[in-house]
Amino acid sequence: MKKCLIVYDSYHHGNTKKVAEAMAEVSGAELCTTEEVPGKNLNEYELIGLGSGIAYGKHYEKLTEAAKALNLNGKSVFVFSTSGSGNKNYNNKLMEQLKEAGANITGSFICKGYDTMILKLFGGISKGHPNEQELSAAKDFILKLVR
Question: Against a cut of 0.85, is the pTM above it?
Answer without folding.
Answer: yes
